[in-house]
Amino acid sequence: MRNQHTKILVEGAAMVALATILSMIQVFKLPWGGTVTLLSMLPIALFSIKYGVRKGLSVSFVFSIIQFVLGATFDGLFGWGLTVKALIACILLDYISAYTLLGFSGMFRNKGMAGWITGTVIAVFFRFICHFISGVFIFHSFGELWSGFSTENIYLYSLLYNGCYMLPEMIFTGIGAFVLFKVPQTKKLLITAEA
What we know:
The structure is a single chain. This protein is mainly alpha-helical. The chain contains 7 helices and 4 strands. The strands form 2 sheets. It has a two-stranded antiparallel sheet with strand order 1-2. Strands 3-4 form a two-stranded antiparallel sheet. Strand 1 and strand 2 form a beta hairpin. It is globular, with a radius of gyration of 17 Å. The two termini are 12 Å apart. The mean pLDDT is 91.
């Protein structure tokens, strides 16, 4: 039992490390903000699929803390000119909640390929919802999206801004889960895990 616990901790740490490294590899960065990464959410999704939502949420919470630190360090989070309340809300919505919710990827883990993909896509959608809410209530004043287009509609602004990078992330992560399900060794490894 102790060896199993140690194995889960090591795998969780490895998946957080892999997800963090992949989050630094940018497939493309949108000129107005938002980045599509190289399957950075997939390791967290795989861990949740293997060990279930409870353990998945624990690992994704650790990942959220690391993403917050990276956001503060490299993205200049504290220099965005947010009020203290807005900054706290941004940290909670755009980092802690958004990335922790990725742990729900394993919610349908026992339903085969459809469960893997559905759980993963829903978890990424949960992340999008956090960013959408943040865009509406925190960043609503930034109505200028890109040259030649602006809107006073804060819901449309947040939908377009966050959807432009989260939709590709969702599609790529879902495809990644599909491809890994099709690899017999990966499928066997993830299905035979003890919850």
